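Input record (Table S2, row 314):
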Amino acid sequence: MTASVVVVGSANMDLVVATPTLPRPGETVLGEGFTTVPGGKGANQAVAAARAGARCHFLGAVGLDAFGDELKGCLAASGVELDGLRRVAGHPSGVALIAVDAAAENLIVVAPGANAQLTELDAVDRELIGSCDVLLCQLEIPLETVVQAAVAARAGHTAFILNAAPARALPDELMALVDVLVVNQTEAAVLAGLDGGRDASRAGNVPELLANLLASVPRVVLTLGAAGAAYADRDGTRLEVGAPPVAAVDTTAAGDAFTGAFAVAWAQGRPVEEALRWACAAGAACAQHWGASTSLPLQPDIDALYERAYQPQT
Ligand code: RIB
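Output record (alpha-D-ribofuranose complex):
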């Protein structure tokens, strides 16, 4: 049977400007082009999971505006099931202001808009969550909704994968419901309460971060950007996998591609090392293209990069 993933999360219209360098605080830089691209960590991960081969449902909220129409259209075109998508009156759809520099790095500011109105899940939502293999959440919607979704997952024996992005501290109540935590090093440092969460040099090394987070959750995936990902669990498994080398154009949504693909592999019951590599291939494939939803890879593209990068050549 096809693996099923339900995403409870955000949808944003990304307003993207390419720029030679990212501005420092107080600085103005001249950009080179402007595009609008459907995005939002929740919608991106739902599209990523659907394109990676899962049956995927999205529970989220957009406004009644033109951005809301476009976001809905993008999700539908990728095969995401939208029974749980709310259209909210009186609030604009979420937007993200994004600058992308010549080195493919980005800077993102999100105005949540309608995403902040996703405050309650009903019985139908809870039943849907409990019927899927994996629940996937991020932190661009109200925290109480993430907790409600996680409780529904636990009641239904659905695995709960939390991508704790953007970085913030989280209550024990939520951490206790997590089956797999997916974080980058900044997010890990903030969650672990290490000084210097915004200062990579003081944010703790990989083993330290993993050990710290295992005190709160049973399994941790630490994404390392172009260097790949690390994994640790309470059974003592420790893994580190490299990412396929690619020429990166824009790293926006690369983490979403990774997380969406990892959720699919987890829902399919694939071995964790294979799941990590396949997710790294999805993230690398995404970074080769411009934009968020526009760059999320299809299953054959992930498979091709995975085979090329990790299978022994004969
Ligand atoms: O992870 C990338 C996403 O972060 C963008 O699409 C933007 O909308 C923000 O949510």
